[in-house]
Amino acid sequence: MEQKGSKEYKELMEKAKMYEYQADCLRVETEAEHIRTVKKNGIEGWVGYCFQSSSSLTPEFSLFARQYESALQKELKGYVLEGWSRGHFEVSAFFKNIDTGKMVYISCSDVRHWQDCWYNNILIRTAEHNKDYTGGSNNYATLKELKRVADMLTQ
Question: Under a CB-based contact definition with an 8 Å cutoff, are residues 150 and 104 in contact?
Fold first, then answer.
């Protein structure tokens, strides 16, 4: 190992900084390409995506949340969106069945820690109103099963 003050050590540290910078640039390019892809392909483009952790809202999660809200509305035909909440890295919503007037609460866990839970393991339960976060018994569904489960809960 080179001595801290030596010329070789300084050269190695400069190389390491250069490689770190190049890696950061590649990460930014990769994220930008992914965003272009999901803008074209929609919500399915997020399956398998690893969201980066951050103390503030990331552009990726902001885009995901907008697309997810649209995807939920598309899946839940016959329901009206009565409330939407984008948390730090999670989302929740209330939907009312147009025919019965009954409501469901839908929630997906933190997307950074529970990869694809928003697609494969969505919490859904009955709700009395659009502030009822404790509602009925927990049920879980995939995005594609969500309408069937919502219909069952709001009969």
Answer: yes
This prediction's pTM: 0.78
pLDDT digits (tens), the chain, 155 positions: 566 778 888 888 889 998 988 888 887 777 777 777 777 778 888 898 888 889 999 888 999 999 999 999 999 999 999 999 999 999 999 999 999 999 999 999 999 999 999 999 999 999 999 999 888 899 999 999 999 999 999 99
User: Does 54 reside within a domain?
Assistant: no
Say if residue 76 is in the same domain as residue 120: yes
* Same domain (yes/no): 97, 129: yes
Range of the domain at 116: 59-153
How many structural domains compose the chain?
Answer: 2
**Cβ-proximal residues to 7 (8 Å cutoff; 6+ apart), any chain:** none
3-class state of residue 39 by DSSP: helix
Helices (H), 76-125: 117-120
Identify the CA nearest to 152 among candidates 141, 47, 143. Answer: 141
Residues 34 and 67 placed together within one structural domain of the fold? no
